[in-house]
Design brief:
Oligomer: heterodimer
Low-confidence stretches of chain A: 1-6
Number of strands of chain A: 0
Mean pLDDT of chain B: 74
Radius of gyration of chain B: 20 Å
Strand content of chain A: under 5%
Number of strands of chain B: 8
Number of helices of chain B: 2
Helix content of chain A: 55-70%
Largest interface: A-B, 47 and 39 residues
Structural class of chain B: mainly beta
Mean pLDDT of chain A: 85
Largest sheet of chain B: 5 strands, antiparallel
Distance between the termini of chain B: 84 Å
Number of helices of chain A: 36
Shape of chain A: rod-shaped
Strand content of chain B: 25-35%
Shape of chain B: globular
Chain lengths: ~575, ~140
């Protein structure tokens, strides 16, 4: 104990080792000068001095390191303090085998040195390779307490493969190294997955929840998804509670949509976006459909946008149904309505058509949208059942539908309503004229429509002529004259109208009244049987006969001219000649 | 969601039902001949026809280009009273005095506009039979 303390003091003050003898020598020299003898005293002294023992008061200086090393390498036995000095002095220069031999010698002396302490000293002297060789040469090199030092020395010497081998073998063998050292070493080599192996082999305790999470996170980053199930077994699946986002991501990757959704629900924020991306990425059509429908039912949802997404995923009926909900809030003219009607197409079926019908029943603004998509016959029946069925606009609509349905009776029914004397616009009159009515009543409606047009100030000239003929046909010459006066103002040269006027005037007031109209007619009638007939009516029989003779020369074979001439001959009192004309 | 975002989500603006510009149905048949017009799809298509003789509804699983439908309408001319469509169906009506016959042949819809047997076409109010000339009023 005492020796060791001195030795340590000597080690701490290495100068004293050399200073001691020098001081001793100085004192000796001083005494010599003081007691300087004469010449023969000196000679005597020299003579005797050779045999005189050294003064007992001066201690022996301790042996130098070089001496100790000399002795040690000669195999001489050294005291433990010397060996310890030698060991301390050699850590910076000695070879591994020398250091190991010194350590062996110390152990033999019963004063073993700690392998790790020596190794650290060597390493501290900047010689990790020597330290490693020293360490590996020691009998206790495989002690768990030394594992970390061996590992570190492999790394310090640049032997990464050696460090990795050491770690790989340690994780397979329980008791090789302290668990904490294995954990740190695994991370130091960026191979944390070895900890899973370590836990599997019992080299470390089962992974904690924090370790499990950390490894799962690492596995995800490294795309080592195969490790997740091993982490769950070697540690705990409970790590997911600490990081639901990671749990969700991994579940989604493994195709477990249900679990992914469960973890998404645990997210502190962004749950909806996460849910949506999981569902959309799942590729499960029904799942996507259910999700979108659920979204649409949320308050404030953008239904048209969701409808579009449903459509793109192939759920057209759902998209339309969603737009129906939205359209019900519009008046049939909003964006959702327009989109819905487009998707329904020109002839919807089933639910869509029923929906349109019920909308049209409740709200006249939907009427047009419904009837143009319904079968014409059904649309017609619907419109006829409306309270406003007899309004002019509805009647116009009914005519169009009846035409499309090829239902002449219904067209006539609608026309009856329109022509009941109500005021009509030009557009309504035009629509009325398109009605296809039963053939046997076409004339009746033509006249009724002509009257309506005249009443509305929209009359065509032909309307008045038609009505004039109608009056004449019914024996009402006065009515005929009335319409013809209006007509002939527009068409003064219409021969048929002038002739009818002459006939009507003759019937009303006699031939005298007819004469001016016949003269007007004659003025616009070219040479013809007509003109001959007219000349005859005006009493100009000779002119008539001359004209017919002329016409017979031009068209010799025309039998009508023969008949005309014979009539004129009979009228002029020449039946004999008339007979001759008719006989070929 | 803002309207802008909604608009971005829609690949195409919501289209109104497309209606071909047609000459007004005058109710007067231009000719007594049968006219046949084809509508050709660009790819395989399943066509489902509902024809009542005057009105034809066609449902299909592949959209057809608007241009083809407009060409069809112009070729059908006066024989066509109405043509409307969207991306999966169309509806067409024959003009008065015409019946429709339609068949689906692979990618093609063949429509025949056939004059109605009762000839001349039944009169509408707008075209009353012409009044007789002077001969009917000769004393």
């Amino acid at each position: 104990m005492n020796l060791r303390a001195i030795n340590i003091q000597a080690l701490r003050k290495p100068n004293m080792v050399f200073l001691g003898p020098i001081l001793g020598g100085g004192v000796l020299l001083a005494a010599t000068l003081v007691l300087m003898p004469n010449r023969w005293q000196i000679a005597d002294a020299i003579r005797r001095g050779t045999f005189s023992p050294p003064p007992a008061a001066i201690p022996l200086p301790p042996p130098g390191i070089a001496q100790l090393m000399q002795r040690f390498s000669e195999g001489r036995r050294l005291a433990s303090p010397d060996l310890q000095r030698l060991m301390a002095a050699s850590s910076a220069t000695g070879s591994a085998s020398t250091l190991s031999a010194i350590a062996d010698a110390l152990a033999k002396n019963g004063a073993p040195v700690a392998t790790d302490r020596v190794s650290y000293d060597i390493m501290a002297a900047g010689r990790p390779d020597v330290a490693l060789t020293f360490l590996e040469s020691r009998p206790d090199r495989a002690a768990p307490a030394l594992w970390r030092l061996r590992f570190d020395l492999h790394r310090k010497t640049g032997d990464m493969a050696g460090a990795a081998d050491l770690l790989r073998s340690a994780v397979m063998t329980p008791g090789n190294a302290p668990p904490q050292d294995l954990v740190e070493a695994a991370y130091a080599l960026a191979t944390p997955e070895l900890l899973i192996t370590a836990a599997e082999h019992g080299a470390i305790p089962p992974l904690s929840q924090a370790q499990s999470l950390d490894l799962a996170s690492w596995a995800n980053t490294a795309q080592r998804y195969d490790l997740i199930s091993r982490i769950d077994r070697a540690g705990t699946p409970g790590w997911r509670a600490d990081n639901p986002w990671l749990a969700m991501t991994l579940a989604q990757r493994s195709g477990d949509t249900g679990s992914a959704l469960r973890y998404a629900a645990l997210l502190p924020s962004g749950r909806d976006a996460a849910r949506e991306s999981i569902v959309m990425a799942s590729g499960n059509p029904q799942g996507i459909r259910q999700y979108l429908l659920a979204q649409a039912s949320a308050r404030g949802a953008d239904r048209p946008a969701i409808a579009q997404r449903l459509l793109e995923k192939g759920f057209r009926p759902d998209a339309i149904a969603l737009l129906r909900q939205q359209s019900a809030r519009e008046a049939g003219d909003g964006g959702a309505s327009a989109r819905m009607l487009y998707l329904m197409g020109p002839r919807p079926t089933g639910e869509d058509l029923d929906w349109l019908r019920s909308r049209a029943s409740a709200d006249p603004r939907w009427l047009a949208a419904y009837i143009e998509r319904e079968q014409p016959a059904k649309a017609l029946a619907f419109v006829e059942s409306r309270p406003a069925a007899d309004s002019s606009d509805m009647l116009v609509q009914r005519i169009a539908l009846a035409n499309a349905a090829r239902d002449r009776v219904a067209a006539a029914r609608a026309l009856d309503g329109l022509l009941d004397g109500r005021p009509l616009t030009a557009r309504q009159l035009k629509a009325a004229a398109t009605a296809t009515v039963p053939a046997d009543r076409a004339g009746h409606y033509a006249l009724a429509l002509a009257r309506a047009r005249i009443a509305a100030g929209q009359g065509e000239p032909s309307d008045r002529l038609s009505l004039a003929w109608d009056g004449w046909d019914r024996g009402n010459a006065e009515e005929a004259v009335g319409y013809l006066q209006g007509y002939l103002r527009d068409r003064p040269d219409d021969r048929a109208a002038l002739r009818l006027m002459a006939d009507a005037q003759a019937k009303l007031k006699g031939d005298v009244a007819a004469r001016p109209w016949l003269e007007r007619l004659l003025a616009v009638t070219p040479p013809s049987i007509d003109r001959a007939d007219l000349l005859n009516r005006l009493g100009r029989t000779a002119d008539a006969m001359a004209l017919v003779e002329m016409l017979r020369r031009v068209s010799p074979g025309d039998r009508r001219l023969d008949i005309m001439l014979s009539r004129l001959l009979i009228a002029s009192g020449d039946p004999g000649r008339a007979r001759k004309v008719l006989r070929p | 969601m803002t309207p802008l975002v909604a608009a971005l989500l829609l690949p195409a603006p919501p289209l109104p039902l497309l209606v071909a510009a047609l000459p007004p149905d005058t109710g007067v048949s231009a000719s007594a001949e049968v006219r046949t017009v084809d509508l050709q799809w660009s790819g395989d298509v399943h066509l489902q026809l509902e024809n009542n003789g005057y009105e034809l509804v066609v449902r299909f699983d592949r959209p057809i280009a608007d241009e083809r439908l407009k060409d069809f309408a112009s070729m059908a001319g006066d024989d066509l009273a109405d043509l409307r469509w969207n991306d999966n169906s169309l509806l067409l009506r024959a003009a008065a005095g015409r019946r429709l016959e339609a068949v689906a042949e692979a990618r093609k819809l063949r429509v025949r506009f056939v004059p109605e047997s009762q000839s001349p076409a039944a009169p509408t109010v707008a075209s009353p039979s012409p009044r007789p000339t002077w001969t009917s009023n000769s004393p």
